[in-house]
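Justification of resources, computational component.

The compute hours requested in this renewal are based largely on the per-chain cost of generating structure records like the one below. Each record pairs the submitted sequence with a full structure-token output. That output is archived, and it is also reused by downstream analysis tasks.
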Amino acid sequence: MLVSNLKNIKMKYIFKHKIKHLIMLTMLLALTACETDFDNPNAATADQTFSSREGILAATVGMQQIYSTTGIRWIVETPAITTREGGITTTFQNMIELEDGGSDLPNFNSNVQGLWASMLRVMKTCEDIESNASLISLEAGTESGLLAYAKLFKAMSIGGLAQNFEHVIVQTSNNNDASFIPRIDGFKAAITLLNDAKSILTTTAISDEFTNEITLGNIDVLNTINAMLARYNLFAGNYDAAISAANSVDMLSTSVFAYDSQNLNPIWSRVFQSTEKRFKPRDNFGLPNTFSFDASDGRLSFYLIPLDETNQNGLPIEDLAGFFGAETGPLPLYIPDEMMLIIAEANLRKSSPDITAATTAINNVLTDTDDVFDINANVAAYSGTNTVDALLDEVYRNRRAELFLTGMSLEDSRRFDRPQPSGASMIFTEERNRNFYPYPDTERNSNPNTPSDPSI
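The structure output for this chain reads:
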């Protein structure tokens, strides 16, 4: 199994980079922390951080670390509760508010605040890397790697916002007056960044120095760029571009965030850690019983361990497995079979749907036995009705199973026109209890450009 094979990589990560990570995280925290009423004479300034090779490399790894720990926590957990992928197992108010949902979800909910703030935090560091990389004496392949990586992570951060908020910020402002644009335009901005990143790497390949200092071989940058191009082009309605990008992804390549004893798998921490237990996964991947799975479907046993319990609101819950069962287990940046499901959906949503191509892509997922992460459905090929609507339902069902707890459930629920939430709170039979999140009060209280909150 690939996940087991990554243990050696993680051990190298731990011993070679533990001290370095502490240093660079201190630098990043100093760089991105909220303003206070006093100056810290020991804190590194932005000019100091980005004026040297060591500083900019440290900031880049720190940016990756913030996204892969704090960012992933909010990206996954927040929509998971809203769309019933997970059921809460805590009395913490922020989680109660999320599961209750409805129009009364407060702007000060810490999950909403955390999702928004962590994405902006990563974006700001990405912008600083882009602004300064060319000003430092670096190997050409190291500079190209830094620029492409910053654009990739900024695109993923914009995408994380656009999947959850009606309007988003795509350029931060030190003056607290950043402009907002509609979320679809946010996806388009992310696509532009990704195309720029791809062009940079096509011109100048990543250096060994960049790989050894930043990715440690865990992240295939070019394949990840193509995977994100496929994802965001689909979300933006650019179906031919989504198909082309998905087809360009090497299905045998992997990209994972590696964790260590100082930086734990953030979902494991939220589900298993004694002081942090917040939720458990829902039965049937949180889908209503109208979407059923063959009992032999390997994705059930990959992600879920039968529990036969309900949470405090009567929602049936399971124990969690898969990528989330170990405290230092790696998390993929994307699941390879997501590309097949993008190809299927895009072919169905095109102005001239290609049912044959969509069915072939769906069957590649259903009959999979050699997935690089061992997410193998290994069931019979699709035998349902060959209509666009029926096949879109099949794509949705499989996206929920393949991409479980990857942060895309709210985007998917809206895009596939699943039943609208009523706006009332504590209606636990609803498939989702919000369409979008309100803007956090931390943004509204400082940025006069913050839009009105969505009604639901």
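The domain at 18-444 is CATH 1.25.40.390 (Serine Threonine Protein Phosphatase 5, Tetratricopeptide repeat). The radius of gyration is 21 Å.
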